[in-house]
Design brief:
about 70 residues; mainly alpha; about 0% strand
C-alpha cells in the first residue's frame, strides 16, 4: 500500500502545527480577546512567552520548508 498519506506526510503535519503556533500566538499579541469570560482569564497574552513561541514556530517553518524544497 505504500506510505500512509504520501511520503511527506510528517513534514506537512509539522509545517501545519508550526504555522498554527506562529499564527495563533501572533494573533494573541496583535488582537487580544475583547472580553474576559472567566475569573482567571488574562487581559492579554504574556508577551515574552508568545514571542518565544513565535520564534520557535518560525524556525520550524523555515526548516521544514527548506527540507521540502531540497
Amino acid at each position: 500500500m505504500g506510505q500512509l498519506l504520501g511520503p511527506n506526510f510528517l513534514q506537512f503535519l509539522l509545517l501545519a502545527l508550526a504555522g498554527a503556533l506562529v499564527v495563533g500566538n501572533t494573533m494573541a499579541l496583535v488582537r487580544p480577546p475583547a472580553k474576559r469570560t472567566g475569573a482567571n482569564d488574562l487581559a492579554q497574552a504574556p508577551r515574552g512567552r508568545s514571542l518565544v513561541m513565535i520564534g520557535v514556530g518560525l524556525i520550524v517553518v523555515v526548516w521544514i520548508v527548506a527540507s521540502l524544497v531540497s
